[in-house]
Amino acid sequence: MSLSVRVIPRLDIKGPNLIKGLSFDGYRALGTAEQFARIYYEEGADELIYQDVVASLYQRNSLTDIIRKTATEIFIPLTVAGGIRSIDDIRGILRSGADKVAINTAAIANPDLIKTAAHTFGSQCIVLSIEAKRREGGWYEAWVDYGRQPTGVDAIEWAQRAVDLGAGEILVTSVDREGMGTGYDIELTRQIATKVPVPVIACGGAGKAEHVTQVIEVGMADAVSAASLFHYNYLQPVDTLFMSSDSDALRMGKQVDEGNVDYLHDKLCGAIPWTMIESASIPEIKKRLLDHDIDCRSIDSPGMSDLASVGDPS
Known about the structure:
With 314 residues, the protein is an alpha/beta fold.
C-alpha cells in the first residue's frame, strides 16, 4: 500500500448525464456529470474517474467535450475509461485534458496495446481496468464490454501480466458487488495488491464508510473508488445547493430519474432490499481514514467557500 491513500469518485456517464446502476445494469440518471465533478473537486476528492458506459458498445469514447470542460475547471487528476482501443484514442483523450486512461476490453484483445501505450505516453498514464466476477471454485474471471462479456481470463494472472507489459496502475472492480452496497470484494483486491508492484484502486460495492477502511486495511488497496456511496450523499432533497426551495426538487435538478427519488426516500438497494447504503461525504470518509491512522490528503478543501455560494440567489 502506498503512503497516502487516494479517495476517487467514479462517475459513470452516458451522454451528458451521470448515471448509476446495479452490477453494471439498470441505469438511472442522477444529474449532469459536470455538476457532480465540481462538487467532488470542491469537497476534496483526490482524483476523478470518468467512465463512458456505452463506449465499448459503440466502440468509441464520446467524452471529449466533458473532458475538456472538466480540465479547465477542476485541477485534480482525471482518468478516463471506456471505448479506448488504439494509441490514437489514448492520444486524443490525453490531449483533451485527461491525465490517465483506463483500458479493459482492448487490452485483453491486444495486450501489446499496453506495452506500446506505456512506451509512448509513460506507464503513469496507463491504468489497467479489470472488471472481475468470482467463479465457481473461487477464481476470478475478467469480463469486458463494461461487465457484459466473459473472457475466460484469470483476473489475477492478467493483472500481473499487464504490469509486466507496462501498466502503471490497476483499477479493479467487482462486477458482482458494483452498486450493491455490500462492501468491496476484499479477497479480489488483496490477491491483486499482493501480487503487483503498482498501485491498486478498489472499486465496486462500497455502501458505508467502514467498507473503505476495510479494503485498505485488509484488502491492501492503495486507493478507493466509489460511486453510490458519494452520489447519494450529494443527491438529497434538502436545503438548496443548486436548486430553489422547492422541497420536491433534488439538488441535481429535475432531470433526476424518478426511480432515484424512490431510492432516496427508501434508502434501500432495490436488488437486495435488506441492504442499506449509508451514504457519506468525502470529508467524512477522509476523517474516518485519519481516525484509523490511514494517511490521506488533507480534508481542508480550499474551494469550499466557492461551493457554498453556488446557486445563491443573492
